[in-house]
Amino acid sequence: MEQHRTRPARYGRYGPRRDSPAGPVKPPLPAQAGRATGGGVRRPARVPEDRPAPPPAARRLPNPRLTGLGSTLFCGLVMLVLGLLTEALFGASGTVYGVLFLPVCVLTALWVREGDLLVAPVVVPIAFAVGLAPVADHGDGGLLDRLMGMVTGLATQAGWLYGGTLVAGLIVLSRRMRRVRAANRRTARNRPARP
Question: Which DSSP letter does residue 18 get?
Answer without folding.
Answer: T
